Amino acid sequence: MPETSPSPVVRLPLLVEEAELRLVRLPLLRPFRIATGTITERLFPLLRLRGEGLEGLAEGVMDPLPDYLDETLAGTLDLLREGILPSILGRRFANPQALARQLAPWRGHAMARAMVEMAFWDLWSRALDLPLGLALGGDGRASVPVGVSLGIAPVEETLEAVARHLEEGYRRIKLKIAPGHDLALLEAARTRFPAIALSVDANASYRLADRARLRALDGFGLEYIEQPLAWDDLIDHATLQRDLRTAVCLDESLRSVGHARRALQIDAARVLNIKVARSGGHDAARRMHDLAKAFDVPVWCGGMLESGIGRAHNIHLSTLPNFTKPGDVSSASRYFARDIVREALEATDGLMPVPQGPGIGVTPDEAALAAIADVPERIRP
Ligand code: OSB
Ligand code: MG
Questions:
Q1: Is 174 a catalytic residue?
Q2: How far is ligand 1, taken at its centre, from the CA of residue 68, in Å?
Q3: Considering only CA atoms, which residue is closest to atom 1 of ligand 1?
Q4: Each residue's pLDDT tens digit in the chain (381 positions)?
Q5: Dihedral angle of Cα 322, 355, 360, 62, to the nearest 10 degrees
Q6: Is the alpha carbon torsion for 253, 258, 261, 265 positive or negative?
């Protein structure tokens, strides 16, 4: 456990004195295959914001190439160095919303702005000496229910993986699908596991013209069908939702609060996957969560194979009250031989403990980081 030090006397609004950026290359234990391709490692920017003797951390989830969404690693680094970081360094912010307002005039780049906003939430909640979940308005629950997301693999292999994870107590199984890797998989899964909480995620690999095939998915008693249609679509999802009994769940399409609001208004989704790191940050994620609640739509917390830093952010967000469905925030040991935080983020019986202590409640493992990250780049006002 990290040593406890007396809470520092912090002057608010909080000064952002320095940023530190480094690129981390974190290998996955096994390849993770989804409709858009196969992921073998996470290559991600790690950001630390420092101020008042404290630091806040966050990681980016943009890919080197625009595989999942349209942001890229190179684009993010450029925007951080040339635009976002210079605009916040040396300034004081009363709260994370004030920091987000500073970035508001710029368009898009939800993943890039999320990184900075999330690091500031960590810093700010540490300054308030509060766990991030409580600072966000969470209900203080000690653990959150979680499921697993299983990549595309031969059917028999997938069934074995399902059995293993059910034995471990995971509360929902999500299977990655793609056109042609769908109906036979679900037939087999439902034959062997008739009553489990099961969902599918297509990662935007179908078109509205595939409606007949998608309608056939309706017979499997799924919790929801995640992002069947295009990554930037809302309208076709609404058309599809009218055709299905099963709830459509949006993921890629929700890149801002506005997207979530419009999706809810046109009934394009009856469940939302909220990912803080693709939504612009915790404030945007929380507003999506509140909007969904107003529409009586349940939400769950998605993941992007995050290291312990992003994973801890996700766990804290999951303590907000409308996160009623199990999230994708499974044990870090499923993905990595060696994580970059000192605390083990491991679920027991399908419950992921919420890290205790101020902020995200985890601390970087500097030795583990040094082995897989490049030299830190310090940026000052
Ligand atoms: O669509 O939710 C997704 C991983 C990488 C990119 C996209 C997705 C995913 C996952 C894994 O489903 C979720 C996780 O365990 O972090
Ligand atoms: Mg998804």
A1: no
A2: 10
A3: 203
A4: 444 555 557 888 999 999 999 999 999 999 999 999 999 999 999 999 999 999 999 999 999 999 999 999 999 999 999 999 999 999 999 999 999 999 999 999 999 999 999 999 999 999 999 999 999 999 999 999 999 999 999 999 999 999 999 999 999 999 999 999 999 999 999 999 999 999 999 999 999 999 999 999 999 999 999 999 999 999 999 999 999 999 999 999 999 999 999 999 999 999 999 999 999 999 999 999 999 999 999 999 999 999 999 999 999 999 999 999 999 999 999 999 999 999 999 999 999 999 999 999 999 999 999 999 999 999 999
A5: -70
A6: negative
The H or E element spanning position 11 is none
How do the domains of the chain map onto residue ranges? 15-129, 135-353
Q: Which atom of ligand 1 is nearest to the CA of 305?
A: 16
Residue range 135-353, CATH number: 3.20.20.120
Contact 227, 203 (CB under 8 A): yes
List the residue whose alpha carbon is closest to atom 12 of ligand 1.
149
Looking at 1.10.3210.10, 3.30.390.10, 3.30.2350.10, 3.10.20.90, the CATH number of the domain 15-129 comes to 3.30.390.10
Pick the closest to residue 175 from 34, 312, 277 (CA basis). Answer: 34
User: What residues are in contact with ligand 1 under a 6 Å CB criterion?
Assistant: 34, 68, 149, 201, 203, 251, 302-305, 328, 330
Distance 282 CA to ligand 2 centre (A): 18
Give me ligand 1 centre to Cα 255, in Å: 15
| Token pair belonging to 293 | 């609640």
Residue 275 falls in the annotated catalytic set: yes
